[in-house]
Predict the 3D structure of the following.
Amino acid sequence: MKQTTTTDMPSRELRNALGLYTTGVAVVTCAGPGGHRCGVTVNSFASVSLDPPLVLWSLQRSSPSLETFEQAGHFAVNVLAQDQQDVSDRFARPAIDKFDGLVCSGGLNGVPLLPACLARFECRTEACHEGGDHVIFVGRVLRWTATPGAPLVFHGGRYDRLVGHRAALDRSAKATACAACAA
Ligand SMILES: Cc1cc2nc3c(=O)[nH]c(=O)nc-3n(C[C@H](O)[C@H](O)[C@H](O)COP(=O)(O)O)c2cc1C
């Protein structure tokens, strides 16, 4: 296997190498001061800790949504299903109102929750860390829901799907939610 050091390598090659790490796709949403809604497509979402329940994701510093996410104090991670590529595309492009025509429900602190997602994690922002050209948001999960199904997948810079995935079987499995949601 060819070894490359980061000092002598174009960043596109590093990006390609990092893209071999396969992820799901999520849209992170928030409601800023005055109820201004923001949403961005991400694949940087990851779980951090179960006790306490912490997750993270990162947002590029150049994003026009950065200030709103920093001020909002809460966010929701909406995990996309295989058939939601259009939703991913919608929130991956700048637009005056990315939510136009979408029927969202209202989450904690007025955070918009997207319909038909596989899972949703409603979080309070615990910390914002420096991450080079990104800001890393750490959130404490306050409420969550999950519905088994096939996820939208991102691999090698493209959308993909799981082959032979047990999602078809999982569809008969029950949706789950935290106690706060079930109440
Ligand atoms: C599959 C996928 C994953 C992405 N992951 C991230 C991410 O983790 N962080 C990020 O800042 N941008 C990510 N992007 C790019 C943003 O979605 C895109 O720049 C979007 O326009 C950001 O919203 P904004 O215009 O409000 O900044 C991703 C895009 C796609 C299609």
